[in-house]
Amino acid sequence: MATPAADGERVVDRAGEIADVGRRAREVLDEKHKARETTLGASRRTIQACAAAIRAVHRGEFDVAEERISEASGLLAEADAEVAAHPDVRHGGYLHDAKKEFAEANLTLAFVRGDPLPAPDALKVEIPAYLNGMAEAASEMRRHLLDCLRAGQLQRAEGLLRVMDDVYGLLVTVDYPDALTGGLRRTTDALRAVLERSRGDLTTTIVADRLQTTIDRVSRETGA
Q: 157-179 b/e with 16+ CB inside 10 Å = b?
């Protein structure tokens, strides 16, 4: 609606149009806020479930680990459904972190139990989250390796170190900007430090074991 101005020019009444913009903006932002809050909550619960799964793996409680992983899978499906129409919310960072933890839990279970590795598509996890999860799962192998060393399972420990080395060998070749890989370079550098400490621990234990074996053999031969 136009009204005459004091100087004779028309002034268009924009109140209705502006109100329409406000209503539409609130509708869109309400939807995004709901998606964000749902995704944040689901992501937090996913991370908690995955942490519990990894602890269960280290205790050898594989059934419990599978239950927690299944719980996390349902939460991620809920989050993905919420952000399907909101790509800006999807790429906010917290969903990536949750999927990274989900990949880590699945890969840790596979590494320890000797299962085939689940593929990214099977987990419904994007490649950057999957690769970061793989790096962290390889780092988790240090704890299992140390448990094996304490139990005298040197062959098992050597196998775990090979897994860690193979993962590092792959990730170090993924040379792309962090914006594409979700900070994979930093995660890979952290894995390298864990790998070298684990290699040192295993080497020390093997040398000590060989020395003890030699001492025992000489003692038997000399009757000491």
A: beebbebbeebbeebeeeeeeee
- Domain-embedded: residue 109: yes
d(CA 118, CA 133): 12
- Give the span between the Cα atoms of 148 and 198, in whole angstroms: 12
Count, residues in the chain: 224
**211 or 51: whose pLDDT is higher?**
51
What are the residue ranges of helices labelled H in 115-183?
120-123, 127-150, 154-171, 178-181
Assess if residue 198 is contained within a domain: yes
Could you give the maximum distance between any two Cα atoms of the chain, in Å? 122
Tens digit of pLDDT for each residue in 144-190? 999 999 999 999 999 999 999 999 999 999 989 988 898 999 999 99
CA dihedral over 189, 193, 199, 202, signed as positive or negative = negative
Structure-block tokens of residue 46: 């996913």
Residue 41 lies in a domain: yes
pTM (two decimals): 0.82
The arithmetic mean of pLDDT across residues 129-145, rounded, is: 95
Provide the pLDDT for residue 129. Answer: 93
Which pLDDT does position 93 carry in this prediction?
Answer: 66
Q: Tokens in use for 208?
A: 């000590």
Q: Which residues pair with 3 in a beta bridge?
A: 11
